[in-house]
Specification:
Blueprint: E1 8-18, E2 21-27, H1 29-32, E3 40-43, E4 46-54, E5 57-63, H2 64-69, E6 80-85, E7 104-113, E8 118-123, E9 137-140, E10 143-151, E11 154-159, H3 161-166, E12 177-182, H4 184-196
Antiparallel strand pairs: 1-2, 1-6, 2-5, 3-4, 3-6, 4-5, 7-8, 7-12, 8-11, 9-10, 9-12, 10-11
Length: 197
Amino acid sequence: MFTGIVEELGEVTAWEDLPDAARLTVRGPVVTSDAKHGDSIAVNGVCLTVVANESGAFTADVMKETLDRSALGALQVGSRVNLERAVRLQDRLGGHLVQGHVDGTGGILSKAPSEHWTVVRISLPDDLDRYVVEKGSITVDGVSLTVSAVEKGWFEVSLIPATQQLTTLGPKAPGDPVNLEVDITAKYVEKLLAARA
């Protein structure tokens, strides 16, 4: 479980294609400072398991299912990524409860900068739009954000300068893919109501 508060920007230092998976190595001295084999680290919002950790970088295997459902397959050596360690029970919950289980991908449609923030419009897959509500939470590339507007096929979030500087969302441009994770509460409520019907 994560909070969607990015701890550091990491960098992909190695990528190995495997028959039905990939193995990537990411430099991230903050998140690797106490990482052990088997620990979870979110990479652009995708929960990955540490299989090796040395010299400020960790290695993780990414199965085909994850590559198919997320935008991790678009990464390459040199790509910057958002990193967050799993939350500890005694930590503050600064964002919202994030599982690191990507529900799908969207794409940056537009960015409208103003003096103190930038409004980003992101495409929303049809099968996810029922879970996204104005003023609700959504995770974009591992960043916990508040939905400022939503319509069929898209939603908007507003990025403060700190989010633009400290995450990969600042340099993203129209056409760039992003990982999306909707609020898990909405999915549970939907399933419980369906069972009652």
